[in-house]
User: What shape does this take?
Amino acid sequence: MEVRYERLRPNEVKNQRKSCPVAYIPLGTLEWHGPHNPVGLDSIKIHKICIRCAEEGGGLVFPPLYYGEAREEGLMDSNPLHVGAISKEMELPTENFELGYMRESPSEAFQNYQRLLLHILNQAQSLGFRVLVLAAGHYPLIDHARAAASIFHQQRRFGSDYGRPKAIPWVFTGYELVRDLYPDAGDHAGFWETSLLMALEPDLVDLSRLPEDESTVPGVISNRPIKESNREFGEEAVGNIVERALAQVQDRLDHPDKYRGHGLKF
Assistant: This one.
């Protein structure tokens, strides 16, 4: 069954929303993930995880967001330790990632991004969904998603909307849900992320592009050799992430009053 919102006709949207009024909103970016992975890994990964959640537990998935984060902070491309090597690999000047290039400060970019997420939450609520899941494939975006979710939660408690039905926002990235099972979960372009992508989009991973000495690859954080990445591990990890994410979503559907008070639970 198709669960991608933008591909559905009105009657299909209506029927599936009535069956399970959950909207998944995948968030990612465009960032260096080594020579063996696509630059859109974060958005691709979390989009596919959201699709699996919707296929197994119901709900619909909004198009992934690749843009909007501060390009000068929070990206491996602009990391002071790796910007030179990554820029060389991408054949870009390092000044493209220096402060001021984006014509606004990182703090202004943060505020703009959070406003965009707040706009998306309000739009998703207007479309009749009761639980709104901001899923951050790029880990730093979880903080911006939580900020937007908190503002959304607060604005629905008072003013002209007081007393009206309110959608419940929830935020996750995936790895934090299974850290008890996989203590090394949540790397960058390493064994963890590469294995997940091998399970979700196997044709996008090419381990043969890695050099024999993996330590020479810039901008990679991994607790295991990347060449050990495998689809079987990725499938297991994705399955556990989806199972635990669905449990959180279902609890919000079944017990909304637990999530109405001050201090939104993430």
Q: What stands out?
A: Helices lie at 10-19, 41-57, 83-90, 106-126, 141-155, 191-200, 231-254. Strands lie at 22-27, 60-61, 131-136, 168-172. The domain at 5-180 is CATH 3.40.50.10310 (Rossmann fold). The first strand starts at residue 22 and ends at 27.
